[in-house]
């Protein structure tokens, strides 16, 4: 049961990607914590800003939340075993920063983002996350 003033919003969003290689060998790869942390800070920031642009329109349609608890279900397009947390971490960080930037939440500290969860959703044709935002919205 959902309390009054509480909402659940669900969306399908792409997982963050980055480019690797040069020329004919250049390819797009899924961003994980293991690939993101050792990157130069300017490359990390560029990847984050690109993801903000991808989710901008969706963020602008969201209500303003007092508190928020995102639930992520991660889907991969190949059967190679992956650590779900490594792919959830950049997604969560980028998405919360985008929500602060667009005024959906005031800050992404524990006072406003009370936690999050991540699950493996299966293997399919694309890499994506089902994001469910559960939270108390502002009046």
Describe the overall structure.
This protein is of the alpha+beta class and 139 residues long. It has a single domain, classed as 2-Layer Sandwich (60s Ribosomal Protein L30, Chain: A), CATH 3.30.1330. Helix content is 31%, strand content 33%. The protein has three helices and six strands. The chain has a four-stranded mixed beta sheet with strand order 1-6-4-5, with helices on one face. Strands 2-3 form a two-stranded antiparallel ribbon. Helix 2 (41-61) crosses helix 3 (84-101). The two termini are 20 Å apart.
The tally of helices reads: 3
Largest sheet: 4 strands, mixed
CATH topology: 60s Ribosomal Protein L30, Chain: A
Shape: globular
Structural class: alpha+beta
Task: Describe this protein with a few key phrases.
globular, two-stranded antiparallel sheet, alpha+beta, 6 strands, 31% helix, 139 residues
């Amino acid at each position: 049961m959902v309390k009054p003033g509480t909402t659940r919003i669900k969306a399908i969003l792409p997982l963050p990607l980055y480019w690797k290689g040069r020329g004919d060998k250049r390819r797009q790869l899924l961003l994980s914590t293991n690939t993101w942390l050792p990157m130069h800070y300017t490359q990390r920031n560029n990847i984050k800003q690109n993801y903000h642009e991808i989710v901008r329109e969706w963020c602008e349609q969201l209500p303003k939340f007092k508190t928020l608890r995102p639930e992520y279900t991660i889907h991969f397009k190949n059967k190679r075993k992956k650590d779900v947390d490594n792919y959830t971490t950049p997604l969560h960080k980028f998405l919360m920063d985008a929500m602060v930037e667009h005024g959906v939440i005031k800050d992404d500290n524990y006072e406003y983002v009370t936690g999050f969860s991540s699950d493996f959703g299966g293997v399919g044709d694309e890499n994506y996350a089902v994001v469910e935002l559960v939270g108390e919205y502002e009046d």
